[in-house]
Amino acid sequence: MSVISVNNINKAFGKTKAVNDVSFEIEKGRIFGLLGPNGAGKTTTIRMINYILTPDSGEVTINGTIASPETQKMIGYMPEERGLYKKMKVFEQLMYLTQLKGMKASNAKQAIDYWLDRFEASEWKKKEINELSKGMSQKIQFIATIAHDPDIYIFDEPFSGLDPINSETLKEIIIELKEKGKTILFSTHRMEQVEQMCDDICLFNQGEAVLTGKLREIKSSFGENTINLEFEGDGSFLDMLRDVRINNRSTNFAEIRVLNGQSMQDILKLAMEHAEIHKFERIQPSLTEIFISTVGEDNIKKAGLDIS
Amino acid sequence: MSFHKIWLVLKREYLTRVKSKSFILLTALTPLALVAFFGIIVYINISETEVEKRIAIKDHTHVLAERLAEINPDRYFDVDNTPIDTLRSQILDEEIDGFIVLNDSVINQSKTPQLVHGGLGGISVISAVRSDLRDAIREERLVREQVPDKVREIFASRTGLDAIKLTEEGESEDNTIFASILGFALGFMIFFGILLYGSLLMRSVIEEKTNRVLEVIASSVKPLELMYGKLFGVLSIALTQFGIWILFYIGISIAAAPIATMIVEKQMSNMPQEAAQAASSFDPSTLENLVIDPSIFVFFILFFFLGFMIYSAIFAAIGAAVENEQDSQQFMPIVMIPIMGAYFLNTKVMQNPDSTLSTFVSLFPLSSPINMISRVASSKVPAWELIASILLMVLTFFGIMWLAAKIYRVGILMYGKKPTFKELAKWVRQD
Fold this sequence. Notes:
The structure holds 2 protein chains of 2 kinds.
Chain A: E1 4-13, E2 16-26, E3 31-35, H1 42-49, E4 57-62, E5 65-66, H2 69-72, E6 75-78, H3 90-100, H4 105-118, H5 134-146, E7 152-156, H6 164-179, E8 183-188, H7 191-197, E9 200-205, E10 208-214, H8 215-221, E11 226-233, E12 244-250, E13 253-258, H9 264-274, E14 275-283, H10 287-295
Parallel strand pairs in A: 3-8, 3-9, 6-7, 7-8
Antiparallel strand pairs in A: 1-2, 1-4, 4-5, 9-10, 11-13, 11-14, 12-13
Helix pairs in contact in A: 3-4, 3-5
Chain B: H1 3-18, H2 21-46, E1 55-59, H3 64-71, E2 76-78, H4 84-92, E3 98-102, H5 104-108, E4 114-117, H6 123-144, H7 149-156, E5 164-167, E6 170-173, H8 176-210, H9 214-218, H10 223-270, H11 273-279, H12 294-321, H13 325-328, H14 333-351, H15 356-363, H16 368-378, H17 383-411, H18 421-429
Parallel strand pairs in B: 1-2, 1-3
Antiparallel strand pairs in B: 3-4, 5-6
Helix pairs in contact in B: 1-10, 2-10, 3-6, 8-10, 8-12, 8-14, 8-16, 10-11, 10-12, 12-16, 12-17, 14-16, 15-16, 17-18
């Protein structure tokens, strides 16, 4: 049985359809990535899973129960718009947030002590949040999300605004939670993070889920239609190529998606005439490439997607 | 609706505020101000024994100076032979406070005499001199007209007025003036309390938005639970503060009369005979009037409670609609117009608590919290009016709460733009 099951949900704000007939299932113990540009409907979907919003039609079930105050307790949620009470002491704050998630005071105290200790943050207990550095308060935010030990974890754009050290910490936490058999859902508009971590993905564009499935299967279904090229010398020959899409380009590197049966050998020849080739590799397409070819170049809100 | 969650929210709201320095300071300093206020009342009453003003009378009538000296020997003295220029320089040298030249025309033709003075420090001295002169001149004219003694006695007699208020408990000494002031003061406190704690609630809602902690909370608590928790949390803070103040007031008002008696007696034994006599004109037992009927406090708490609930629901909705305090300004008239109106009309209610206007504003639910308590304290309000005003406030509360909850529910997740009134209306209609 799926841990999270989203069935044909719709949500409109006035005339804007924020989420349009979206369905997907998340299996226990897996990391599920919700991908798409800003404004594609990811946060609205996540809010419906968290029972912050209710769908206009369709339903969300968590462990078989329709989203409700009861299911909220099963989820640890770190929203994109996140923060803490600035003038409250760390420990009191964590107690408050954890108890709101339905944990008893004595259990909450134990869990908070454990996590503060884990993050070497025990001495901040009596400090107010505005006395802490940004990195420190981000750690407190993690604890606030996970201390009540739920089965499901939802992170909305978790890496935006995190410093590099905390980004690493968060990745470790996510991996550790997965190993404990917990289910994780996170959303991002940065494709490369998904490639590293996700088991399953759902691609969002303009309120619709355009592609859902296991990351590995999706990638292999696209075949090895991409060239990973490393070279030295003048890169201007790349502009001469036809029937290709270059997604990731720098002075000595390019990721070239081959279109319309264009011959890879011809590309190699052209490259060798103009530059010294260090590496020429046939690979599966990147997620960015998969996203673009799924929704079509013209349908992407340019500002939203991070195609770096 | 989970009462446990409302309780958790309430507890946090209450504890974080009650432990704050500003709360402790405000709670402690206000009673100190009250003590100072009582102290000043007692002091002013005692210190009216100040030195009498000296007014020189240059008397060409040769009768009025004597009569004036009879009325107040400390104030008036005859300076028949001193030239006016000397008197002027004496004023400037502060040897005397003023002088009056009196001619026969003052008696015969009712001319208005002139008081030349170097600043007497207040209108009360001038009016006292005027009334002394009137008495002296009237007396002299009556003598000159050879009016019989009986008639002169009639003119000399002054009728006072003792006001006795009749209540169901029997006759009691009237203290209408104190009751009116009390009514106004209680109305003012409700006005002040609603504004103070209402905006505290609003700031607290805005704080959760600017801190971006709101969505974390919203993933655990229903917006309405959060709103109720915060509302009752702030209400508890207000009641704690008012409770402390009321207890303090009751204590001090009961103790005031005995303490003042003690101080006055002690002072008098240290004072020269004359001053002590004047001081005795202050009767410490008048302070017993400061003891307030406990039922008035019950009404005070009740009306504050209802008024706070109505206004704070609006405050919370405004807080949810905006992202920072500056943006809240555009919505503040919704609160400020009715509450300031009630406050300004409160003077009218104090002057005439039973007029049609007073009855109307004490029934109208947005002004009744302030205006009804003024009437209750200073007059006898019919029971049906009390019940009607309470019912209207309860109904208004539910109506406004329903609207506020809708705005709150949508508003707390809205970031980035300042909504207009039109958009708020759309939020209300949104399902």
